[in-house]
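Sharing a chain and its predicted structure for anyone who wants a worked example. Both blocks are below, sequence first, tokens second.
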Amino acid sequence: MYYMEDGSCILAVEDTLFNVHRSMLARDNSSFATMFTLPQGDNVTEGYSDATPIVLVGETVQEFRHFLWVLYALPHELRMVTSPGADLDQLIAIARVANKYSFKSIETWSLDVIQEYVTRKPSPILNAIPNPNSYMFLPHSADSSTPHSPLTATNIEYTAQLTRLIKLAQLCSHERLLNTMITLLKQLMSSSLQYAYLAMTLSDELGLRALKGPAYLEVMNKAVLANEIGVGLPLRPKSTTNSNSDLSEPSEDGHVSGGQLVISSSQRLRLLSGYYRLSSLWEGLRSCPPSFDHASTCGATWHQQGCSQSWLEFWKEKTRTDAVLAISLADILGRLRQVQKEFDRWGSATYMHHECRMTARRSIQDLIKGVEDALPDYFSDS
């Protein structure tokens, strides 16, 4: 396929030859257009015979076929890839090859189609992924010689697809798709330790700050960990009711071993650093409530000192409730959200001015937002 009798440019991808039209490859101010204008000198001109093809590296034969398909596709064929039954792997291949060879309009079109596909309701990606409690996690790079059950193989497939989508969005600087994929992965990792590990690893590899903090926090709160040499990290007691953490099959880095999630030494360091920093932050916060500016009417109609004292007493009491203490010490966001719930249940039987109460509530929200924004910094190496 795509070895055309009237083609004018012969390309070699892996062990396959393609004969296509130079005019098609030179469209869209692509890299091929620039290459075709370069002087050849006295060397044998590449691309004019099967013996001297232009050799392309970095993509598979199937990926390049997908790309050539979109170059030559008719309008009704293009409509097929925008339908609910679109081949997502085909679109990913088109976008990646288009990005590599600077076909900007094709790259933008394919990424927009992918964005439209992944944001459909209900989500085709979330619906296609098996229940996280029904399989063991193995990343897509696992040894292919290892036998897998159908569920495990399916999990590998969708893990690989999620990884490709996030890497593609970052490679092409497509912010909407990247944000969409981060949101989808956050949804998955909230109910699955395995996807929390995937999110943690991708955030490290790609430098995704928006994913790093939530992913590390999720792993820290849910997992019983082991480092590369198998030393346990009991950051939290292993729950007997949390099926996501109740894992027992042996595996390699990023898998589970003896009921523990196996992580790298650098990830172990970041998790321990995050645990220490967040637990230390909580110790400081629980003794000193967030400050706020009193309403102007508070000093005129209320005793401002009594308003402040009421707020201080609430904070010190509610940060010591059983509901708060039942949450992991380093899960500062969980503890602050529980305090916010307690504040909403506080009622009107208080010596705080009404406007001050609203301002105090906003101060809790601002504190939660501040911790969320700074979360990646708590899980740093330094």
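Comments welcome. The chain has a mean pLDDT of 82.
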